[in-house]
Specification:
By secondary structure, the protein is mostly helical. The chain contains two helices and no strands.
């Protein structure tokens, strides 16, 4: 009877150790997947920005037909934005 209890305890300890090792393996895998997921999220954001930039560029090119004209339009818009920022800054002071 005592030998049977010892065998069961030994088996329980072995099962416990196996489950502990499996849990550790799964935790490591989860961390790797979380890191990979974060990298994919960053890549998605970067690609979305690139898509937006390409759409904007396409909108300017379809109007004028050349990249120099599109660049000039963008420069004009940036100039207008800078003037607006300057006006807002002056009003705040």
């Amino acid at each position: 009877m005592l030998d049977g209890v010892k065998q069961k305890i030994t088996r329980l300890i072995a099962d416990f150790e196996a489950e502990r090792a499996e849990r550790k393996r799964l935790q490591i895998e989860l961390e790797k997947m979380a890191t990979r997921n974060e990298a994919y999220k960053k890549q998605i954001l970067e690609l979305e920005r690139e898509i937006d930039n390409l759409k904007l560029k396409g909108a300017f090119l379809s109007q004028g037909g050349d990249s120099a004209g599109a660049r000039k339009k963008i420069d004009v818009l940036i100039g207008k934005i800078d003037k607006c920022i300057a006006l807002v800054t002056d009003e705040m002071e």
